[in-house]
Amino acid sequence: MIPPIASRFVAGETERDVLAHARALDAEGINSICNLLGEHYDSPEPAAEDREAYCSLIEGIGEAGLDASVSVKPSQLGLGVSEECFRANLERVVERAAEHGAFVWLDMEDHTTTDATLDAYTDHVDEYEDLGVCVQANLKRTPEDLHRLADHAGKVRLVKGAYDEPAEVAHREKSRVDEAYRECLDVMFAEFDGGIAVGSHDPTMVEYAKDLHDTHGTDFEIQMLMGVREDAQRDLAEQYEVHQYVPYGDRWFAYFYRRMLERRENLLFGLRALVGR
Ligand code: FAD
Questions:
Q1: CB 70 within 8 A of CB 104
Q2: FRET label pair with 236: which of 13, 45, 48, 115, CA 20 to 30 Å apart?
Q3: For a substitution probing ligand 1, which of 202, 208, 260, 268 has the most ligand atoms within 8 Å of its CB?
């Protein structure tokens, strides 16, 4: 069972827990993006297990009639085993999603996986449009990738990038990453017909996207994590499409620990919860 201190960031350990959370969000007009926690597998068995868990979740989402999607990590579906293993598992998940009309997101991991992830996405998305991929503004290659992605259907989530990447491939200064994020949004709003997802808690990036929407009229959605700026998520949902990324599963500790370390406020929240104040 997840301790109360972690339940701000993780919906629970089971499919039932994440569906219950998605149902509650649905009632508030917020869509869920469900992510089973797990990554970096180096053998096919856990990747196959998680593939089946996603297939089952997709069925559950379909049966519950929820406006929810799933988000999978390539290394969770076996990219670290082989590209074939990843492709075969992804294919099964996408087939199941097609049966239930569900949307599937591909998270983006470190830069060594970018080509394999984007190739898998572009190979599937023209046949199955309910597919999305994440790209990272900190990577220097991303504007080029966006020009290419503009020719495809599907959705693209822009994030700043969570991985510690080398300077040869990535902007490392926060101010430069912020500038790159805005440059990437400029490309998306100018070249995409829609399918733009702004994956950021940063109010300045959200405002920038709103202004671009007013200028270009292109549809967009805002995506934030469970437990982060939830008041803002509710406020934004009154006017815009908001999706909350909702992690679940029994491998919650490492994810929770990362959330705790990433901001002083989160750490203080954790300490207060521990001492009961
Ligand atoms: P930051 O640059 O961290 O912060 C900017 C401002 O945002 C802060 O000054 C503050 O005003 C506000 N803010 C940020 N965090 C908080 C907080 N906890 N509480 C209150 N205010 C806050 N990364 C990947 O590499 N691959 C992925 O597939 C991926 N998927 C993601 C999916 C979603 C839906 C989201 C939201 C993020 C995802 N990320 C992913 C993580 C992303 O790359 C960033 O590391 C993370 O979002 C932090 O950057 P930021 O834009 O939110 O704001």
A1: yes
A2: 13
A3: 202
Check pocket membership of 182 for ligand 1, CB cut-off 6 A: no
pLDDT, tens digit only, all 277 positions of the chain: 888 888 999 999 999 999 999 999 999 999 999 999 999 999 999 999 999 999 999 999 999 999 899 999 999 999 999 999 999 999 999 999 999 999 999 999 999 999 999 999 999 998 999 999 999 999 999 999 999 999 999 999 999 999 999 999 999 999 999 999 999 999 999 999 999 999 999 999 999 999 999 999 999 999 999 999 999 999 999 999 999 999 999 999 989 888 888 776 666 666 666 655 5
223 domain-assigned: yes
Paired tokens of 201: 């808690």
Kindly state whether residue 3 falls inside one of the protein's structural domains.
no
Our answer on whether the CB atom of 10 is closer than 6 Å to any ligand 1 atom is: no
The whole-model pTM stands at 0.96
**Residue at 4 is within a domain:** no
Query: What CATH number is associated with residue 76?
Result: 3.20.20.220
The CA angle 172-164-73, to the nearest 5 degrees, is: 130
250 lines ligand 1 (CB under 6 A): no
Q: What is the domain extent for residue 65?
A: 15-275
**CA–CA dist 5, 201 (Å, integer):** 21
Task: Please count the structural domains in the chain.
Answer: 1
Q: Give the active site residues.
A: 107, 157
Residue 8 lies in a domain: no
